[in-house]
Amino acid sequence: MGERIGLEVSLAISEAVKLARVDAVAAYPITPQTHIVEELAQMVADGDLDARYIMVESEHSAMSACCGTAAVGARTFTATASQGLALMHEMLFIASGLRLPIVMAIANRALSAPLSIWGDQSDVMAERDIGWVQMFAETGQEAFDLTLCCFKIAEDPRVLLPTIINIDGFTLSHVVEPLEMESQEDVDAWLPTYVPQVILDPAKPVTIGPVGFPEIYTEIKKQQDMALKGSYDVVLEVWDGFEKKFGRAYKPVESYRAEDAEIIINLIGAIAGTARIAVDRMRDEGKKVGLVRTRLWRPYPFVEMRKALDGAKAVAVVDRALSFGGPGGPIASELRSCLYPLQKKPVVASFIAGLGGRDVTIDDFYTIVAETEKVLETGYTDEYKMIGVRE
Amino acid sequence: MAEKSTEFIPRLLPPRELFAEGHRGCQGCGEALALRQVLKVAGPNTIVCSATGCMEIISSPYPETAWRVPWIHVAFENAAAVASGVEAGIKILQKKGRYPEGKVNVIAIGGDGGTADIGLQALSGALERRHNFTYVCTDNEAYMNTGIQRSSSTPWGASTTTSPSGKESIGQDVPKKNLPKIVAAHDIPYLATACPSYPLDLMNKTRKALEIEGPTYLHVLSPCPTGWRHAIDMAVEMGRLAVETGVFPLYQIVEGRLKLDMVMEKREPVIDYLKPQGRFRHLNPEQIEKIQKGVDEYYESLVYRAECDAKAPMPDAEEW
Fold first, then answer.
1. Which residue of A has its CA nearest to B93?
2. A225 and A264 part of one domain
3. Is the pTM of the predicted complex or chain greater than 0.90?
4. Which residue of B223, B276, B289, B315 shows the fewest CB atoms closer than 10 Å?
């Protein structure tokens, strides 16, 4: 059992990175991620973290330098958000293609234009196909715990893929939360020193990042896909092991009062807290409403999602990202694909809310559920509907 | 000059080829020649970080590789940033006892596009952060890998596929970016221009660059028969002509002081360099005269600067 303390969630991630005894950090400042890397810089400056901190000149170079440190066998961490993640875009595919187990925290933030430093999930939703393991935390404790787990998942020889821990910008990154801080001794026992599989070492020259001609490219991508799909079992195994060691359980999908629910709200990240209060109130009013929060985003938890939503009449999906002119919010359209093969499936209504730092309130959830009831009555649903737009 | 001692030189060089034969380079490629020479000096305790480009494409068609040293290619614009990570990673892991001890040369390699254009920011960052690495720019004066498109390093008057000469166009209509000058502004401890046509000079400069602690930079003019449109057996000759005409002066900047390696009172006329190259075929005598004037002025400015630098008080880099 760890020590119970209060800590800003960004700093909780920094603490987890320190406890993981990370070897190298390459990062560039961007709101709302900056506290994470500032704290790491301070830890290195104070001698509390024995790591090389590379203060690069852009996020593109941050991920490039991370590829370099990981390729020589260093446990590597970076953090970014929004435009920074977008600037990294090219490198993200390469990091996973080269099978470099980099861990990255994203404090999710809106994308420009207009410029917005505030939170939503547009940044990471534009990066769904980068081939990284991706997960979302709701609380400070979860952010701390999952960051530790990310290293163990990424570096597992069965996985060897970079891994993202997402936290909502400001609403999670900048709040102080109570959490149990684990000791270095316990973390060391659970997360041993990283033993890389292949590194750049003059004693054993290897070529990393060659040209893949059409005769081989598909096979390499197939391997990578197998690794990402295969990471699913490793994620479960690591989370189970984490629970045994530290007593806190994590599953790919988290349900709240959803067992007998007719309408289930599905979302990702910190707004689950508000949704839970809304569910409680609606339950008190006799409405059969529940909540399913998706924690693991890549690989997508198909089986768990189908199970968690089984029996519901409708799912109200809340996306904090917009797929302009598309088939629905990113979470909703993926859920529709997930449920499509089922004979008996709930209707999926897609709602876009909480863009660019706009609060998603309890009232908003009432609106969302009311709209979903309408969908059930009429049998008609729009591709997606934006909630809380000022007229 | 040692260059003329053709009988003895081969015996002085390490016979081992770390950039192996059998790669897919064009016939007569000057850039591949440069890499071969750099690696002969660098030796096996070397990690190479390549930018996307000709040398990366020709050397690594999976599952084959021309690299007998550890090699990584990540992308086009970031060889310097990747090298930053490799250098920093080795440093911390050696400190922690998790990487073999001993000096490892970290070399980043990029073409002129990957260095002067798309990779300029990453290069500047890595130089400014004082990583202990050597950046080698193999400058063939255009995007040869994608089919001879102009770069900022393409010289004035050269015809490329995106700066074609024509009734209304002279070809590239702006002067070549002076990249070594930009690099020198980072006050790095060592910078040199070189050319594979002068193998001993290139190799000596490589040795110096690798020995000196901190970021060092080699700007290597690499004749390209395909892109310059000269005969495939002319790459070495073209490099010599570039130097002997003063088009590409060989110099070093050590701790801020510029030193010309060959001070030529009398230089060959630039037309001798331009004439064998198809990319300059369209130029008329006035235009060639303009190039001659530019080359003369630049060369004389370097001679003057070298004289001044020899006498100039220089800030002591060590103090910083």
1. A74
2. no
3. yes
4. B315
